[in-house]
Design brief:
The complex is a heterodimer of chains A (about 500) and B (about 40).
Chain A lengths: L9 H12 L2 H13 L3 H29 L3 H9 L4 H34 L8 H9 L3 H18 L2 H28 L4 H9 L9 H15 L5 H6 L9 H29 L4 H6 L6 H12 L6 H36 L4 H21 L1 H29 L1 H9 L11 H28 L12 H17 L1 H10 L3
Helix pairs in contact in A: 1-8, 1-12, 1-15, 2-10, 2-12, 3-10, 3-12, 3-19, 4-5, 4-17, 5-7, 5-15, 5-16, 5-17, 5-20, 6-14, 7-8, 7-15, 7-16, 8-12, 8-15, 9-12, 15-16, 16-17, 17-19, 17-20
Chain B lengths: L2 H35 L1
The chains are: A mainly alpha (about 500), B mainly alpha (about 40).
Chain lengths: ~500, ~40
Amino acid sequence: MKQSEFFTSRWGLILSTLGIAVGTGNIWRFSRVVAQNGGGSFLIPWVIFLLIWSVPLIIAEFAIGKSTRLAPIGAIAKTAGSKFGWMGAFITFVSTAIMFYYSVVTGWCIRYLFSAISGDLFNVSNHINYWNDFSSSNLPIIFHFIAMLFCAIIVYRGIVNGVEKINRIFVSSLLIILVILLIRSVTLPNASEGLKYFFTPDWNYLLEYKVWLNALTQNAWDTGAGWGLILTYAIYMKKKEDISLNAALIGFGNNSVSLIAGMMIFSTVFALGGADAMDQISQSGPANTGITFIYLPLLFSKMSGSIIINTIFAILFFIALSFAAITSLISMIELATRTLIDFGIVRKKAIVVISVSGFLLGLPSAIDINFLINQDWVWGVGLILSGFFIAFSIIKYGVNKFRDEIINGLGSDIKIGRWYNYIIRFVVPLQAVVLLLWWLISSTTWDPEWWNPFHAENLGTCLAQWFVVLSLFILTNKFLVKYTFKNIV
Amino acid sequence: MNLETILTAVLVVGIVWGGVVFFLSRAIKYERTKVEKD
């Protein structure tokens, strides 16, 4: 299969890849995790893990995608050897399983944007009831359908006319909107208290291993490193396109967006939230919904004496949130679509298959939030394993050879030094192993029936679902790899 | 705000936003060079 479509420029590629990385996790998850982990203390390990987890893995994904021109199954099989195609299949499955429920979450954002535009959001006496009424109705299904349909149409239009064009508009607008919201929130009376909390370190927290592990998880979550999504977009990079500089820009750019969102949310909550502000941020409700869909709409209604100004800021916030969600969902659909293309299915047919199955398999999450929480838990943790598989495939290929021939090869603007070898060989695998072990041990303490696979968030459900998926892919490895390579000309 | 808070803010924001400014300026520079070469 000859690669015929490419991102038109470096900026198109960067904005599209930033669209993957910047998602709802930057806006709602980041603030909650900062609040739960000692404010400013959390930011220090968070920056360290940006350097030793996110950026190295983003470089790896760019390099694997650019050199193999294949979706994760073929890409990992070509890099690590055909015995390891199942690892690529696992990476694909994790991101696709996340896509099923992420479409539902995107639907929630769009629904709240509509509510803000229509003015409904400020005619509510109780925001908790408003959320509960919405989530228990059929509306999440309708908005899940709208989200999936919209994103599928974008992917259907192709990389240049669909993915790149929409990301150029949405990501640029998202950044501008976040800066406007930041300026407004830091100029609210008492906003400095929020900033003070956000940046004041409590050194005792730095001695707690949980803070470090949460900082790593947050980086794995919000940069998109190790998901296979950046790898997929890298398929469409021009040969002469740089890897390392672009990857660093994505990692730092993504975390900059998190900082803007965090400063905005902490300023707003401390300025308008009153005494229970910290509880509201750190106890976010099911699937992290609390702060975004229950508490912030309440705060926006108190932002000024003018309902028009309040409505404008609420609309801007939910536009930003919807854009962040849509651009990430598009990349997940593209990953699954590209996998089918590698199997020999034509692009347009592949998109129809993925979007219809994506809608159907997202229905359980749209109907029952506990199902969504379960999937979020199982596949969210699975991302650490995905990151490990990417590092493993480079180790198998030969880190030094990979760095010399691919990362520092044709088109590289900056050369990566030997430090990269140590990070991929030792630091990334160590981080993945420590994080998974910590999680395995601690999850046995928070659920007495930790072995029960039918509980929403415990060890049993995770191991059971991983076992089924990994067994299936290991058993069908030969078939998966054969069909992928059969279609390469 | 005390000195600790200010130093943490400068360090974190400096590294993260400084990284963006640094890498973005390099990217712009290399793009310009490429256009001139072409």
